[in-house]
Structure formats: structure tokens, C-alpha cells
Amino acid sequence: MSDYDYDLFVIGAGSGGVRASRLSASFGARVAVAEERFLGGTCVNIGCIPKKLFVYASAFQEEMAEATSGYGWSIQGAEFDWPTLIAQKNREIERLNGVYGRLLDQAGVERIEGRATVKDPHTVEVNGKRSTARHILVATGSTPFVPPEIEGGELAITSEGAFYLDSLPERIVIVGGGYIAVEFAGIFRGLGVDVVQLYRGSLFLRGFDDDIRSHLAEEMRQAGIDLRFGLNVARIEPHSRGLRAILDDGSELEADQVLAATGRRPNSLEIGLEEAGVRLDTVGAVAVDDYSQSSVPSIHAIGDVTNRMNLTPVALHEGICLANTLFNARPMKPVHEAVPAAVFSQPPAATVGLTESEAREQGRRVDVYRSTFRALKQTLTDSQSKSMMKLVVDSQSQQVLGVHMVGHEAGEIVQGFAVAVKAGLTKDQFDATIGIHPTSAEEFVTMREPVSQG
Ligand code: NDP
Question: How wide is the angle at C-alpha 71 spanned by C-alphas 65 and 75, nearest 5°?
Fold first, then answer.
């Protein structure tokens, strides 16, 4: 195909990089992928997978409470051992690292261990060895970011450290109001930790539907999380019993750990991108066009390093599109609309399509359907938890623009409804669908009266 050593040199074997490598190789490209840390990237090693395993671990507490208060079980001597969970989780990750390695090998992708730097638009160097490639793909992901304005911020852990703590803290302060903060608040609370979560704004999960945000806040408070809005950490200092966090209103909190879940930054620096002429945006993300091509035509980027929509399935999708564009004579633009997402809080929240305020900002009139109810499983128990479901419907066309939920299995349920939103189905078509009884999901096809219109 060319005089280059490779048709594609991928930097980063995370979700996006591995998918793009394998698929490109299946189209006949000669591919190498360099990885300096671990196969599978953030998602497999210090993200989605271990996070979800931790969520499962912590949810048993609530299930045991429900079993005993409502279903005739008596459970004695239940104890939780953090080192056992960590060891089990590490074993599974090692297995997955092996799976990723084998997938790349079987696809005929050359694996290179080490940090790659771009030397020019067609040259990459790893461990002192230079290779040339027709195309270079930057799929280096992102790293947790601790705001420099938090004095003593180096005393805080980030999500990366939280996955490897030697012992479970008794008290933790979590800073931030995004996915990671909310998920870890639930994880630690479920494992019996005293959790204070601080968010600088007036309501966390900015960008989600407002009803989801306020309902989830209520649920988390009921679960015993001390959720405080309009507050931030100004300073962290060592203390005889752990750490002291001094908040911006002057008050103080003591904790064994402070977790900064204050966003992530693209891994775009010190890998030769700017020197090669690749344009970065103001947060350091690689600026790309609709086809994931950077300002240097032979250099492409996908996933978190582009800061478009930082979700694993989106990085996979971008990788698939790029491989098709470059090596399958089928140009494909990644689509970032109607992307479903879940926050694995406890209870979880999930969403697809437009929020009510986004729909209104687009100048649409909307019919809003909302239902708040106690799930059947909880009726026999002491639990006061309620599920909330919401549909945002275009008043004129009756197209369902958004599906939102807080409640058990929200991710599983909304994944199914995402197909309907993606297909542009109307409320009538939802209504014509028969429910599965008794489920929570059936509520989405049985909402008859809007709570507001226009
Ligand atoms: P997010 O960007 O989601 O949230 C960052 C949070 O930190 C926001 O609440 C933000 O507040 C706050 N923050 C930012 N800067 C400061 C500051 N200087 N002081 C105080 N607070 C601050 O980042 P996360 O770290 O939670 O997650 C990173 C990304 O990873 C997510 O956006 C998501 O794309 C992905 N992810 C997805 C998951 C899933 O799909 N379930 C799970 C985990 C991560 P404000 O809102 O005011 O800006």
C-alpha cells in the first residue's frame, strides 16, 4: 500500500485505540499500537469496569436491608472486606488485559510497549526506535484533574487512587458534582463510609435533565449521603486523624480521604503533537474535524483526547468510523446525537435525547410526561426510595425527544428506549407498545397524561 512501515500507527491501547486498530487490520491495513501503561485503557483498568464492580459490591448492603425488612430473611454476621474486593477486581482486570492482548494479536496488530511520541506527521518514536506510518492515530485518553486553586490538592486522591486504596476509609469528602463524584459517593456510602459530597454549583450533574438532578439528589440524601451544594474545598491539610478540608465558607471537615472528582484533562501534552503542527484547543484537546482528522492531515484523534463526548462507547464508535474512513473506502462521520448515558449512582440515572430545557432552548413546545412511584420490589420493605421516569415529547410532531430515568436498572431500561429515540418514534408509537408486567420499564409505555404542555 505504501513505503511507510505501517499504514496506521495508533498511540494508546484504550477502548478507542484498540477498536480502531483491530478494525483497520481487518480491512487489510498494517497496524501497530503503542501503549505505555495498560491494555484496555481507563475504562478497563481504572474506569467503567472496576467502577461497576464496586457499585455491585456496595449495593449488597441495600439488598440485605430489603431482604430482612421485607422478605423474611434474617442475615447474621454479614461483613465486608475491602482487600478481598480489591484483589477480586484486580484479578478480573488482569484477565481482561489478557483478552485485549489476544484480540490485538489475533487481528494481526503489532503491540509495542512504551510511550510513543510524534516526531513528524508520519513518524513516531517508541523506546528510541522510530517508525513511519501513513496515518497516525492519537487515542491517548484523559487523566483526572485536580484544580490548582485547591491548596494542598496533592493530598487528595482521584478516581485512579480510589481503585487501589489499601483500606476503606471511615470518612470521605468527595469534591465535584459530575459522573465520578456521584458514582463514588454511592459506592462509598453503600460500603458503610460516611460520605460528604461537595458541589460548587446549586445542583449537581450539570447538563442532565433538571428533574433527574433534583430527584437523584433527594434519593442520595435519603441513602445517607451528606450532599452539600454551593460549597467547594479551598484547602486540604494534614491532620492528626487523617485530613482536614477547609471549605470556601470557612467551615471545616475532617476525613480519612478527600476524593477530587473535578473533571479530566486530555492526554495531549509531551507527545510531540504541537511540535508536529497539531492544533490543540483551549483545554488541550486535539481539535478534529467531522472525520476525526486533526489540523495535520495524516494525524487523527479519537476518544477523550478530543474531548467531544467522553464515553467509552463513543470512543468505540469514533474508532469504527475512522477505520472505515481510512481503510474501507467508506467515509463515516461519528454521530454524537441521541447518545444514551447512565450515571451508576445508587439508584442509577440514565438518559437519552434532549432534556426538557434543551428542547425548550431549541424553541420547541414540549409535552412532559413524568411518573414517580415506588417500585414493586420496595413495597414490602422499609425503603422510601422512589423511581422517577420522564418523557420529553415535541408538542407538534409528537416525536419523543428525550427519555430520562432515576431508579433501579435505569441503564438497562434506557438502553432499550434509546433505539426508539434514535429512530425518532412518536408518543403514539410508545403508547401502542404493550408493557411487560410487572416491570418499572412498562411505565414508559403507559404514561397517558402530560404533567405540562407547551
Ligand atoms: P465531569 O466533567 O462529569 O464533572 C466534573 C465535576 O467537577 C463537575 O461537577 C464540575 O463542576 C466540577 N469541577 C470542575 N472544576 C472544578 C473546580 N475547580 N472546583 C470544584 N469543582 C470543579 O467529570 P468527571 O471527573 O466526573 O468525569 C469525567 C468524564 O468521564 C465525564 O464527563 C464522563 O464523560 C466520563 N464518565 C462517564 C461515566 C459513565 O458513563 N457512567 C462514569 C465516569 C466518567 P461544574 O459542573 O460546575 O463545572
Answer: 50
Of 307, 192, 193, residue with least CA distance to 259: 193
Angle between helices 179-190 and 48-70 (to 10 degrees): 40
Average pLDDT over residues 283-296: 98
91: CB partners within 8 A, 6+ apart = none
Alpha-carbon distance 72 to 203, whole Å? Answer: 38
Q: Closest ligand 1 atom to the C-alpha of 204? A: 9
User: Percentage of the chain with pLDDT > 70?
Assistant: 100
Residues with CB under 6 A from ligand 1: 147, 175-181, 183, 199-201, 206, 232, 261-264, 310-311, 341-344
Q: What is the pTM of this model?
A: 0.97
DSSP 376: G
Q: Which helix (H) or strand (E) holds 174?
A: strand 171-175
Distances (CA, A) of 383 to 194, 228, 344: 19, 23, 19
Pick the residue whose CA is nearest to atom 36 on ligand 1.
179
- Judged by DSSP in three states, 280 sits in strand
Please tell us whether the domain made up of 347-453 is placed in CATH 1.10.10.10. no
- The pLDDT of residue 19 is 98
Give the gyration radius of the chain's Cα atoms.
24
Domain positions in the chain: 6-48+83-144+265-327, 153-262, 347-453
Does pLDDT of 1 surpass 90? Answer: no
Q: Does the domain made of 6-48+83-144+265-327 have the CATH classification 3.50.50.60?
A: yes
Give the three-class secondary structure for 21. helix
In tens, the pLDDT along 306-325 reads 999 999 999 999 999 999 99
> Regarding the domain delimited by 153-262, which CATH topology (the fold level of the hierarchy) does it fall under?
FAD/NAD(P)-binding domain (3.50.50)
109 pLDDT more than 80:
yes
Q: Do domains 153-262 and 347-453 have the same CATH topology?
A: no
Contact 258, 123 (CB under 8 A): no
Residue written as grid cell 494542598: 152
